[in-house]
Design a protein that fits this description.
With about 290 residues, the chain is an alpha+beta fold. About 40% of the residues lie in helices and about 15% in strands. A hairpin with a 4-residue loop joins β2 and β3. α4 runs antiparallel to α5 and α5 runs parallel beside α9. The radius of gyration is 20 Å and the shape is globular.
């Protein structure tokens, strides 16, 4: 059982004020980590926990939240500290009371995301590896976006899939696709700061209707990869897309590239959960290859 007293002591040191919480309250919604709310009646903190061996995952999340917050574009929960205790790793961050998007929340989110994507770097990748779900996400920095997407995104996931017993047609199609990426990625994206895992479950709205994003898997990449994932599982309305495109129009060919970018997440779901994601990935690759 996790010693929340030790975590509370860490919170007290990191926040600069004594913190003596009542019993933790369980927070639902995630499938990778356990989440609890700690409160002493005056301040509240959101704590995510997992096994001690995943401490690097929380350290990377801390770094990403810090980097996203520093852009002053779209709100994220401010991270406070990370650590390990009783065989568990944890991250502590600002606890946010979430409400509804309201009449303008989705448009606000689209504008803010476009502003985030305006923060660019010289190379694709990131300062460290992180995770996408519970899967390692390599981020070795490169100047060539096609090579980055081939080697550190699709190629990496296909290798994991092969190791997990998903061979045959999936790998045959994958090999063909990796060899033809330059025919599909036919624009010149800037290395934009991305959330990296922007599905509907990783965005909310505070009690004032201001958008908040969380659970990042950040790196610098083609901004279309973020936009594509918003379309994968739904949850984003027309006001979001209209506001984003008004702020920064997408390049021609996005409708094809979004399938290529979402293939990464479908392959990751195959490696995490198995099931029908393999057939879904094969269908996506067949459609992409048919367009070459």
């Amino acid at each position: 059982m996790t010693d929340f007293r030790a975590i509370a002591e860490h919170i007290g040191r990191a926040s600069g004020r004594s913190f003596n919480p009542t019993d933790p309250g369980r927070v639902g919604g995630g499938c990778i980590n356990t989440a609890v709310q700690l409160s002493d009646g005056h301040s509240q903190w959101f704590v995510k926990l997992n096994r001690a061996g995943l401490a690097d995952m929380f350290d990377a999340e801390f770094t990403a939240l810090d980097e996203l917050a520093a852009t002053h574009t779209i709100r994220v929960p401010r991270p406070l500290c990370t650590g390990t205790v009783d065989g568990a790793s944890y991250i502590v961050m600002e606890y946010l009371h979430l409400g509804q998007a309201g009449a303008t929340g989705q448009a606000w989110a689209g504008e803010r995301l476009a502003a985030l994507h305006r923060h660019t770097a010289e190379r694709f990748g990131w300062s460290r590896d992180n995770t996408i779900g519970a899967t390692l996400q390599p981020n070795e920095q490169q100047t060539d976006w096609i090579a980055f997407w081939r080697d550190q995104r699709l190629g990496f996931q296909l290798e994991l899939a092969a190791g997990n017993g998903h061979g045959g047609r999936l790998q045959q199609l994958g090999d063909r696709l990796l060899g033809d990426l330059d025919a599909l990625i036919d624009h010149a994206p800037a290395p934009s700061l991305l959330h990296g895992d922007l599905w509907g479950g990783n965005i909310g709205y505070d009690t004032q209707g201001e958008p908040v994003i969380y659970d990042p898997a950040s790196y610098y990449g083609d901004r279309e990869a973020d936009i594509a994932m918003t379309e994968l599982f739904g949850g984003f309305g027309s006001d979001f897309y209209h506001a984003y495109r008004n702020a920064w129009p997408l390049d021609p060919g996005y409708d094809t590239r979004k399938t290529l970018y979402n293939l990464y997440h479908v392959l990751n779901h195959l490696n995490l959960f198995g099931g029908g994601y393999g057939r879904q990935a094969e269908g996506m690759m067949e459609r992409l290859l048919a367009q070459i």
